[in-house]
Amino acid sequence: MAAGGGARWLPRRPSDTVGGRRAAGGLGFGVVLDRRGTVPPDSSPSLTARVLAFSAIIVAGVCGGLIGFTVMDLSCRGDCTTTAGLIGLASAVIAAVGTGIVAVLTLRAAAEWRAQQPGSTVRSPGGASGRNRGS
Known about the structure:
The protein is mainly alpha-helical. Helices cover 47% and strands 5% of the residues. It has two helices and three strands.
């Protein structure tokens, strides 16, 4: 152990670092450790935001399924319940996936915005605030 509490680490190959920082596991993936060997603060969205995003995905899927089923059922002549059901299922999946993409992008943008606010109190794994991150 080196002075300052962090272990010194020397990269063996260029893929062991990400932007001058050590990547956990030496593979360039996962948690990126800064030069002092600390883990960056957790800036994950709140539980309320995640529950709302999940609810929006479920509602969009149900609405997409109902719309797809109804449009197919009304536009088809005769008995095409199976076809309308398959179209409704496909519409539900498409609506849920589209809403899921938007929800993930929104949650990531909100978390990044919150982490970059001056004086932000982003939770870190060690309990310290997210101030002076990266300095």
